[in-house]
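Hi F.,

I've been meaning to write this up properly since the lab meeting, where we talked about keeping a consistent format for the predictions we share between groups. The idea is simple: the sequence comes first, exactly as it goes in, then the structure tokens exactly as they come out, then a line or two of notes. No screenshots and no reformatting. I'm using this chain as the first example so we have something concrete to point to.
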Amino acid sequence: MGQVVLISTMGTTSPEDSKDPFGHIGFYKLNFEAELMASGLPFTIVKPCGLLDTPPLTTELVVGHDDDLTVNPPTISRADVARVCIAALQQPKVSAGLRFDLCSKAGTPTSDPDLAKVLQAAKYPWEVNAGEIVV
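Output, unedited:
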């Protein structure tokens, strides 16, 4: 089986948060993420903020982890989420094992060639290859 790309949602860091407008959906999405991560399948989990029906390529895409993105308003085009998912499937060596928040902000629109940089930026600091260690 090839790469699995799951579109989840931001807000699963504290799925039982009383401010969760979706009730217990975050709890179930978090469990689905955990099942996929434990399955042994190569995966990428994209966790977008609020989805909009707007054209792609009009905003700068930003990534983060654990619901720490402070973008206002916290929104992203559905088409931009799809672009990131396609890039993840096209670049499994970069995207395998990633689980990240995705949002957008005003700025230079993120082009298709720049999506590899978005995926690279989605890695946790300890996942970034800091170079070869010689012993």
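Notes:
The chain has four helices and six strands.
The radius of gyration is 15 Å.

If this format works for you, I'll send the rest the same way.

G.
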